Amino acid sequence: MTKYHFIIDEQTGRIDKVLQECLEMSRSQIQVLLKKEYVQVNEVIVKANYKVKCRDKIDVTIPEKEELDVIPENLPLDIIFEDEDIVIVNKVSGMVVHPSVNHETGTLVNALLYHIKDLSSGTGEVRPGIVHRIDKDTSGLLVVAKHNKAHQLLSEQLQQHSMTREYIALVHGVIEEDNGTIHAPLARDKYDRLKWSVQKEGKDAITHFTVLQRYAHHTLVSLRLETGRTHQIRVHMQFIGHELVGDLVYSHHADDKSMGQYLHAKTLGFIHPRTQQNVLFTSELPHYFKEYLDNLVDA
Q: Measured between alpha carbons, how far is 226 from 47 in angstroms, rounded to an integer?
């Protein structure tokens, strides 16, 4: 177990928010610690609504991470290509890519373990085969590695920014430029650890966009990632004033967010790890995405 001790000098307010800043953990993680009575203030166990005061002494105990038992699950999986080295999956919106403390089942990895015999060791025990990720509410294409050699060669292409990844997104507002490039560094948000934001000290991030269709109050765009930072497209489009429709985290618009952000990983291209030939895969927009577009008014 890891133990932390804080004496509060300035920051006050609800203890879950205070600890979120001090420990750089998500609010849900902090609330779990509080619920399990791992937090004491002045040697007394407190709840999440405790109001921290100046000179409070806070003790936090963080238990060792429990190993997740990742079990195969017979979940629907849209496999558009498979050979002895790779699998190309068309992920549905709403599916998390790999298990975590908050999502132990129902993930893409759970489904892969059921449908695919061999997977690479990935980047950890809960990520077999996973070369790259897309957000839970983003739909579209992912490449999965069946063995470690394929995983290594695909990962190198990601690191070298040579893998083609193109997305389709519906954003708020009418973008006047036909195309453009957003070059703005990204880092975890200083005030909300679950979000990312443009910050000068962040990691380099580059997104290229092309307008596909203008509507009265929206724009359909194609986006190509040159880098692959967390939430990159969503944060970059917010940064230029065109938040993604349906985005639960980065959009302040009062539209229907039941499907999450309207973002689809449409195109995925790379050098095949065995044949060394360029391969390119595409997928159609989900039906709910098409229906939303059909109901928009043209510009």
A: 44
Contact 186, 199 (CB under 8 A): yes
Catalytic residue among 16, 56, 85, 135: 135
* Side chain identity at residue 78, one-letter code: D
Q: CA geometry: angle at 97 spanning 94 and 100, to 5°?
A: 100
Instruction: Enumerate residues 6+ apart whose C-beta is below 8 A from 89.
Output: 77, 78, 79, 80, 108, 112, 141, 142, 144
pTM: 0.77
Condensed to tens digits (0 to 9), the pLDDT of residues 196-205 reads 999 998 999 9
Give the dihedral sign, CA 45/48/53/54: positive
Work out the percent of the chain whose per-residue pLDDT is above 70. 94
* Positive or negative torsion for Cα 35, 108, 255, 265: positive
Q: What are the tens digits of pLDDT across the range 231-257?
A: 999 999 999 999 999 999 999 998 878
Distances (CA, A) of 261 to 23, 139, 168: 29, 9, 11
Specify which residues 247 forms β-bridges with: none
Q: Is 69 a catalytic residue?
A: no
